[in-house]
Amino acid sequence: MEIKIQPMQKSDVDNVINIEEKAYGEHHWSKESFLNELSNDLARYYSAFNEDGDLAGYAGCWQILEEVHITNVAVSPDYRRKKIGEALLKTIIDDCYKNKAKYITLEVRVSNKPAISLYEKYGFKSLGVRKGYYQNNNEDALIMWTENIFYDKFKLNYEKVIAELEGKIILK
């Protein structure tokens, strides 16, 4: 599968909202929230397109000094289990290297085992729980962090998982 990832544009937001609604139900970000994020100097958002030019997923993060907080990663149900979420995560990590961010953090639902597995594959570790974090059902969130991404241990693992990913998809 061929995937093109690029900075999110305002013209992507309607399709982002369609994925957001499918991924998160009635408790999702608004169109206005995404438009505000696109003008936020701390934020970076990405859109992933399939070979036909359809929006397949998106991700976003904030960089504050040496830390990046991943705010969201979502893939359309039609494109899940096709490495798109992983490609988006790679894009964020590559951006962290480029912008000298050392640590990456995120929250993830404790029930979202596929996402937790993906983050663990990329070196994230659970360092705590936010009780009742998700408003729609009061579900807890795992707080996950990487170690310093410039440390050899992280970089060696990252190179290994990226080699596996690049053997399965083509990133444009």
Question: Describe it for me?
Answer:
This protein is of the alpha+beta class. The chain has one domain: Gcn5-related N-acetyltransferase (GNAT) (Aminopeptidase), CATH 3.40.630.30. It has an 8-stranded mixed beta sheet with strand order 6-7-5-4-3-2-1-8. The longest helix has 15 residues. The radius of gyration is 15 Å and the shape is globular. 29% of the residues are buried. The model has no long low-confidence stretch (mean pLDDT 92).
Brief overview:
With 172 residues, this protein is an alpha+beta fold.
Please state the oligomeric state of the protein chains shown.
Answer: single chain
Runs in which pLDDT lies below 50 for 5 or more consecutive residues are none
- The largest beta-sheet arranges its strands as 6-7-5-4-3-2-1-8
**DSSP strand (E) fraction?**
25-35%
Give the helices and strands, then pairings.
Elements: E1 2-7, H1 13-24, H2 31-38, E2 43-49, E3 55-64, E4 67-75, H3 84-98, E5 103-109, H4 113-121, E6 125-130, E7 141-145, H5 152-166, E8 170-171
Parallel strand pairs: 1-8, 4-5
Antiparallel strand pairs: 1-2, 2-3, 3-4, 5-7, 6-7
Observed structural traits:
single chain; 172 residues; alpha+beta; Aminopeptidase; eight-stranded mixed β-sheet; 8 strands; 30% strand; globular
